[in-house]
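Honest question from a wet-lab person: if I give you the sequences of every part of a complex, can you actually get the arrangement of the whole thing, not just the pieces? Trying it with mine:
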Amino acid sequence: MPLDAVRVGRGKVAPPGAARVQPNLGEYERVRRDFTWDSARGWLAGLPDERGLNIAHEAVDRHAEGPRAGKVAVVCRDRQGRISELTYGQLRSSTSRFANLLRDLGLAPGESVFSLLGRVPELYVTALGTLKHTSVFAPLFPGLGPEPIRQRLLLGDARVLVTTPELYKREVAPIRDRVPGLAHVLLVGNRTAAGDTIDLHAALARADETFEIPPTDPRTPALLHFTSGATGRPKGALHVHEAVVAHHATAAYALDLHESDVFWCTADPGWVTGTSYGIIAPLTHGATLVVDAADFDVHGWYELLQEQRVNVFYTTPTALRMLMRYGVDRARAYDLSALRFIASVGEPLNAEVVLWGQEAFGRPVHDTWWQTETGAIMISNFASMDVRPGSMGRPVPGVKVALLERGEDGRALVIDGEVHEIRSPEAVGEIALRQGWPSMFRSYVGDAEVGVGPAGRSPGGAGTTQRYDACFADGWYLTGDVARRDNDGYYWFLGRTDDVIKSAGQLIGPFEVESVLMSHPAVAEACVIGKPDRVAGEIVKAFVTLRPGCEPSDDLRLDILAFGRRALGALAPKEMAFEAQLPRTRSGKVLRRLLKARELGQPDGDLFIPQPRG
Ligand code: ATP
Ligand code: MG
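Yes, you can. This is the full assembly:
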């Protein structure tokens, strides 16, 4: 059965006891027609006396000033399983102390504050306190090694770093003298690791607990996020305070987030998802944010969903596939009756997982598509609409998507001054987004002379350069991802432009092939690449990992290849290899380019992100 034909209803099999909540986005077509970003700006408070728009005011202060002061804003479970809570009122005073501390240290607005922390309460205080001070918050994933850390600190012109004594000693001390601009290192934890650092808690205790947010032009730089590096060296995308309009609106529409919700986003704030939705959006909604310091653990995850009565759960396809390995019965052993909405991002979500969610939780998984550069969800499946398993869904209100063609020179095809947009309802092309949504990135830091530092700051994108400009053509942002649109306006991910395979005159999207292979009972994960071939140009080669209990053998290989041929015909892989595991970026994405380089006998290239230790 073609997957387009499968519809998973809107919570048709609602888990017993699940609260009935009216979706924020009712009738899609009508909302899309009437929506403007200006109206969404009106959902936020803005700084008093028209003094602008500041993310931390929307996320913290405006709630703390009102009836939500005593409401739990953040629930943290530490690695030992202990729970601690911060109310909106407490978050307000601790972030104000942090902002005062930055001022006392002499930090100028616009300078950058990096964090290298596990998911501890101090990370959230650092993020929001930095935004209050109108400095730029740049979170680093704590699994990075010294060299990647150094590169990012330099690119983002780091002035302050908040980390732990352990991470400082192991990852930062060896490179600190090669990051001359780094003026202050604040350590979370009582043991001070070196003379030239500051004990964060002691410094916060000395700082004043009230802070008035300075006037904040919405175009003031706010967040610096590094991409995952799936296609090459990670890029640092700079976002401005105005992005909060998109964080807030997309969380309402695409994640169906309500004020009364308990929300858990499993992404680390070191990746854009973990900040846009793992810090900012739930707080701008006045909801309760759940944070888990530990890594994936099947019992730990189900227990947290159960104990905290999580309503909205935002995670990744990889994590969901890991839960899937433990089966439906395992999921049903917990009381997940509070769970109302499940969403996923970061990698293609295969239909199997969507359907498994329906079986295990009585809820389908809603795919969402976006990038570090877009700052917020751009395409998604909505609570009020049927989910098409395997599809990324439809554009969020306010976002105009087109499928474009690129010319020989790699730029979008411009004919008579107009970008060549593929307009038929059913189409294939590169996903392009009409410029003008609030969370669009404003520069790549380190892109030629433009940096975050005082000299090179570029609020609003002025003075941006080559690499940034190359992403735009005629008012469109070119995303580098290829998709198909069906007759009803749903988008289907095909692959990244570089990964699309051209075989015997056909364009083959790796994701379609991988999805089919993953529906073979022995296959856990699959990754396909185009392997150069003298006759066909390229042939499809697959790399697969097996489910527990399955052993690689020639028979199994032939069986999987035959399975692929039956389902895919000419698109099927011609070659296949078993892998113990697929190479991944730190953020968990499959490193397709690495498999390809190895296949071609090329060096692994500039990996930048080292393989996990131990
Ligand atoms: P780099 O830009 O350094 O190569 P990256 O693109 O992986 O890294 P991110 O910005 O974190 O870094 O990821 C965005 C990309 O992830 C998208 O462009 C897309 O290729 C992929 N992606 C995100 N969500 C989805 C989704 N729902 N379905 C398919 N792919 C997705
Ligand atoms: Mg990218």
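Two things worth pointing out. DSSP finds 18 helices and 30 strands in the chain. The longest strand covers residues 523-533.
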